Amino acid sequence: SYENAREIQEKMRPSIDLDLAVTYSNMGLLYTSLNDTSNALLYHQKALEIRTKNLEVNHPDLATTYNNIGLVYDQRQEFSTALSYYEKTLKIYTQILPDNHPWLATTCKNIGLAKISMGECMIGLNNLCKAREIRKIALPSNHPSIASICGTIGGIYQEAGDYTTALKFYEEALDIGKRAPHIDYACLAMTYYNMSRILNELKQYDKALKYAELAVQSASKSSMTTNSDAVKFKKNFEQLQTKRL
What is the mean predicted confidence (pLDDT) over 137-160? Predict the structure, then answer.
């Protein structure tokens, strides 16, 4: 359908038409979802070329395009290039948006994850925590985006071996996730699993087993849990059961 729209627009509209840029952008997003990064970049760059010629330098559509290109480079694990586009996005957003706008939080999160992937862990964590603070101000206290960023931060601390801090952020993610208007059981299951693994490392076997069981139960309530994750949760639960015997 996008190809049909593109062919019609390219015949009937000027090559710098903004509606054509929208179609290019939509095609870029679809190719990103299909993991076809070459075509994704091709169409996002086409959209960027049109928008650069037609829009003010701080237009939000330019920021969106920069962010979309950054996500493609992120997918390619070219984190330095991704970061450069995220920073272009942030530069525009800081000029045109309120200090606590959710889009700023998303950009800070993207920058933070790119920095961590580049080995700049503390700078990355600072950006993730900034994203969390913005979301806590801008969004309802039970919004899943707050739970998501807390879980992400918890994962970074878990990987760094700071289990106490990791548990604190996972607990916050759980509290928010269980109060969300629509509970994401797949996310809850992963958080329970991660907490179970940490508690096992801390030799708190009873609590570890409890959270392992909750991970299995939550996964069974979700159609979004992958088979590999479900198997992983069950294996963890069974191993902890064996340890109790």
Answer: 97
Each residue's pLDDT tens digit, 207-230: 999 999 999 999 999 999 999 999
| Residue 217: both structure tokens together | 């139960």
- Express each pLDDT in 89-107 by its tens digit: 999 999 999 999 999 999 9
Has residue 52 got a pLDDT over 80? yes
Q: Is the distance from CB of 181 to CB of 147 less than 8 angstroms?
A: no
Domains of the chain: 1-110 (1.25.40.10)
CA distances to 56, 97, 198, 208, 235 from 194, rounded to whole Å, are 45, 35, 6, 10, 13
